[in-house]
């Protein structure tokens, strides 16, 4: 059983031994925007919807708790909850990773003069584990801890210096455990009988695991609203010189696997923009058909820097731009250029990963909504000069959590055994002429330069 606690909805997916989906249930929860730039969730609603989808997924196939070997949890990362350990009540809404006001929140906590020692802090996994075990277990895993910026990813301990600066008592922080580990048991009240909670990982790391990127140098990209690229860097934490984040991918036993991560703020969201604001397409799927009406972008480039640019540029002042327009550029070229920007942005992150790690991309595993687009996958392979592999099961986030839990509970014995379940839907190999490729990337970088720092006057 994978509990996939996302940013807008909670899901439960049941997987069988072959790694196939046997049941799914999903329920959205409320997005709370108390003021511009603030994003909150009701932690009780997260818990209630998560539990209800677990029950629903079981009911759909008439399955009992006894048939569930273990629970794996994967979650929106960096979202935090503080609750009272006696009453179990959150003292405030969950502060969501998208929220821009963490500093003010800390001040507010202090002003309230809350009694030391009664409060527990956690990310969403911690909260769900605590609820499922009825307050018996206050824990998180390495991958989630590494995103709080309070955890020292080298010593594998909460960082005393940072805790002191932020005035956070160690007593409120969860114990950090391996990602594949028996955390405790989900109480029998909830799902009929008790089930061990045996796997925990933040969503992107879980997807890396679900994509079976078990070896150093393996890379995945999730094309969702944004784009999330992670490269397994093995036992070494690689310090980035090119704008990437060093993170823990997972811990199994006492072995830690590190990753380099690069986030592209706008990926699928650019396709939504074509649909909702520009009204050039009726549905996201149409982008492929429309882009295929022309053989190239006719010299036109779209840089979808709507909210600035993330990795590897990190420019909050960049803004979107369309350049290279001549009299012959039509809507199909603009649609194609927008789609192409997803691949070009990902390619920039891949090149940064290669530079930092010294590892050349050998293949890219893809998932997320826009990975359904064959033209996009082909473009990605053309620009990144490596095979792009789309698995049959693109629910890689939930799958990663299920695999982590299944490993700790003996449902699967080894990574090799898990790898046998991996089924490829399609592989895309690069076809573009190399000179053409070089020119496209060169022009793309010219376009990116024109979008940088646009929102400020130099
Ligand atoms: P998230 O989990 O971030 O909500 P998903 O993985 O569900 O995102 O992907 C949804 C995104 O993928 C949307 O932005 C949508 O526009 C885009 N998308 C979905 N299908 C396609 C397609 N066939 N071609 C291009 N983009 C697509």
Structure, briefly:
The chain is of the alpha+beta class and 458 residues long.
Q: Would you mind describing this structure in some detail?
A:
The protein is α+β, with helices and mostly antiparallel strands. It is 33% helix and 25% strand. The strands form 7 sheets. The chain has a 7-stranded mixed β-sheet with strand order 17-18-16-15-21-22-23, with helices on both faces. Strands 3-2-1-5-14-13 form a 6-stranded mixed β-sheet, with helices on both faces. A two-stranded antiparallel sheet has the order 4-7. Strand 15 (219-223) and strand 16 (227-234) form a beta hairpin. Helix 1 crosses helix 3, helix 7 packs across helix 12 (396-408) and helix 10 crosses helix 11 (374-384). The longest helix is centred in the last third of the chain and has 27 residues, at 331-357. The protein starts with a strand and ends in a 7-residue tail after the last helix. The mean pLDDT is 93. Residues 224-225, 268-269, 271-272, 284-285, 287-288, 368-370, 372-373 line the site of adenosine-5'-diphosphate.
């Amino acid at each position: 059983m994978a509990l996939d606690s996302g940013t807008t909805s909670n899901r439960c997916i049941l997987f069988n031994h072959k790694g196939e989906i046997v049941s799914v249930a999903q329920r959205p929860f409320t997005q709370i925007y108390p003021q511009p730039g603030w994003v909150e969730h009701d932690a009780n609603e997260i818990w209630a919807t998560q539990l209800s989808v677990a029950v629903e997924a079981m009911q759909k196939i008439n399955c009992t708790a006894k048939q569930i070997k273990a629970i794996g949890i994967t979650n929106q990362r960096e979202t935090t909850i503080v609750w009272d350990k006696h009453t179990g009540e959150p003292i405030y809404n969950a502060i969501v990773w998208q929220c821009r006001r963490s500093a003010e929140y800390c001040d507010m906590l202090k002003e309230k003069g809350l009694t030391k020692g009664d409060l527990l802090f956690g990310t969403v996994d911690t909260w769900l584990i605590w609820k499922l075990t009825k307050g018996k277990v206050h824990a998180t895993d390495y991958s989630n801890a590494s995103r709080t910026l309070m955890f020292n990813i080298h010593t594998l301990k909460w960082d005393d210096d940072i805790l002191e600066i932020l005035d956070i008592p160690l007593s409120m922080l969860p114990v950090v455990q391996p990602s594949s580990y028996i955390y405790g048991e989900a109480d029998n009240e909830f799902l009929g009988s008790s089930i061990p909670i045996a796997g925990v990982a933040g969503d992107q790391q879980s997807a890396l695991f679900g994509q079976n990127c078990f070896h150093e140098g393996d890379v995945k990209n999730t094309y969702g609203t944004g784009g999330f690229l992670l490269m397994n860097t093995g036992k070494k934490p690689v310090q980035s010189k090119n704008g990437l984040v060093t993170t823990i991918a997972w811990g199994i036993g006492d072995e830690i696997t590190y990753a380099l991560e690069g986030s592209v703020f706008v990926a699928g969201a650019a396709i939504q923009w074509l649909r909702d604001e520009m009204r050039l397409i009726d549905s996201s799927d149409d982008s492929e058909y429309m882009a295929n009406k022309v053989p190239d972008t006719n010299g036109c480039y779209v840089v979808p820097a709507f909210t600035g640019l993330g990795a590897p540029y990190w420019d909050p002042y960049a803004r979107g731009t369309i350049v290279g327009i001549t009299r012959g550029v039509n809507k199909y070229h603009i649609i194609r250029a927008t789609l192409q920007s997803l691949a070009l942005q990902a390619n920039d992150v891949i090149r940064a990963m290669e530079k930092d790690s010294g590892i050349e991309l050998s293949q890219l595993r893809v998932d997320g909504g826009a990975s359904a687009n064959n033209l996009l996958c082909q473009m990605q392979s053309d620009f990144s000069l490596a095979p792009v592999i789309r698995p049959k099961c693109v629910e890689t986030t939930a799958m990663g959590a299920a695999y982590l839990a299944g490993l700790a509970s003996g449902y699967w014995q080894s990574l090799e055994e898990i790898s046998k379940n991996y089924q490829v839907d399609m592989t895309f190999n690069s076809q573009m002429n190399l000179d053409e490729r070089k020119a496209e990337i060169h022009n793309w970088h010219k376009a990116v330069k024109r979008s940088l720092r646009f929102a400020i006057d130099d």
